Amino acid sequence: MIKSKKVINELLVEVFNHILSIEGSKLKERGIKISMNEMHVLEAVKKTRDPSMSNIAGRLRVTVGTLTTSVNRLVEKGYATRKRDGKDKRKVIISLTDKALNSLRIHDEFHEEMLDALFSDMNIEEDDVLLQSLENLSFYFKNKY
Amino acid sequence: MIKSKKVINELLVEVFNHILSIEGSKLKERGIKISMNEMHVLEAVKKTRDPSMSNIAGRLRVTVGTLTTSVNRLVEKGYATRKRDGKDKRKVIISLTDKALNSLRIHDEFHEEMLDALFSDMNIEEDDVLLQSLENLSFYFKNKY
DNA sequence: GAACATTACTTTGATTATCAAAACAAAATA
DNA sequence: TATTTTGTTTTGATAATCAAAGTAATGTTC
Hints:
2 copies of one chain form a homodimer.
Chain A: H1 3-29, H2 36-47, H3 53-60, H4 64-76, E1 80-84, E2 92-96, H5 98-122, H6 128-144
Antiparallel strand pairs in A: 1-2
The first copy, chain A, binds a DNA duplex through residues 35, 37-38, 52-54, 62-70, 72-73, 88-92.
């Protein structure tokens, strides 16, 4: 494998997993009592325009059944609420509580900090070439498959 | 958030998860009947120099107890074998079977293909700046935390 | 508009992934 | 030899996941 492939592969394979587990423990330290997985569900709820069960599950790429159990737990723990759609009563719309929004905020802050550290340590703020490439990379993976 | 942060954040948050789930389904299509998680265990076994339970668990950042159950299943399914270390009989050394090595090969091939597609579509083969930056990024995350 | 089909979701049953704490066995140390 | 440390497994609990079956609302067709 040529070097460039190796580097990107490593980034994909090793680094992301590592970051995810760091993130989990850091959040724990900061008193967040939900898993990274649950955090991702909250994120998906927030970012999904019409946050029905199907739409959220689609975004997360899990089955709706899987999401049902996640949402059950989030509702129990006070992070989310369910309501039926007024127009189409088959649909269930998920909303986030203040508690959830607060957790998301802390999570975002952690990401900001991590990236700030990265930027200040690596001095890449101004590197337009890198950013363009990363943007392409990101776009590529989001669309290709 | 400034744009560059946004791009890297997106790469971390969205792209990685996406790729992982694509990868899972692609491997399924190619007749690999193990989960991505199990694949990661096989990878870790292969890459760990002295593949005892503790060393492998450390690399994967899971508890040894967790690894025990994963290895149990891999042994049941014929992907791995256990043996005791000759010198220190407390240690359990994991080895991979041909079946495991074959699965790893198919997995690697998928990664190669994915990256080949990326490279040919994006024409970044020669982009030394990008590669250097990605390498730094990779190094940074591996060492910082 | 009654019968049938589709859509949206939940439930069920099964497997996998994870941890912390307890148990166990070998090795190191005092 | 007795005690402690190290390496692993077991136990008990919870979370994450899917496929398939079940339920209820909506859409379609004749």
